[in-house]
Amino acid sequence: MKKEPGRRNTRQRQAIVEELRKLEHHPTAAELYSLVRRRLPRVSLGTIYRNLDVLTRMGVVRRVEGGRTGARFDCNQEPHHYVRCVGCGDVGDVRAVPGMIPEQAMGLEGYEILEYRLEFIGYCPDCLDHRNREEGSSHRGEGM
Ligand SMILES: [Zn+2]
Questions:
Q1: On the CB side of 136, how many CA atoms lie within 13 Å of its CA?
Q2: How many angstroms separate the alpha carbon of residue 75 from the centre of ligand 1?
Q3: Which position among 39, 63, 72, 111 has the lowest Cβ density within 10 Å, counted as fewest Cβ atoms?
Q4: pTM (2 decimals)?
């Protein structure tokens, strides 16, 4: 049995998952790399990517597309959806409401649906604030 590499991988994965759990937001692989490196100084970015891949396939970690800022990672196992900011690329959680999308609304026949993902796209409060200040008060009252 090749014990050593396995144990090292386990330790790296454990460190990744532990760091992920500490965070409120969903970090990129690069952010995770800098956090995990504090604990395991010899870890490489490639190792982080590889372990994130494995963890994603194991279903421990969820990969969230972050648009131009790259994929984000999440280890929250509660059913939930995402809201992505087009301004800064930040990804937040949206609590899933059971029955939010009834199966008949999907119009799918012959499929067994395991799960579905919803992504809300817009501006986060920080970016909205920034945008509103940039636009100035002349546009106030416009829109909705
Ligand atoms: Zn934003």
A1: 1
A2: 21
A3: 111
A4: 0.68
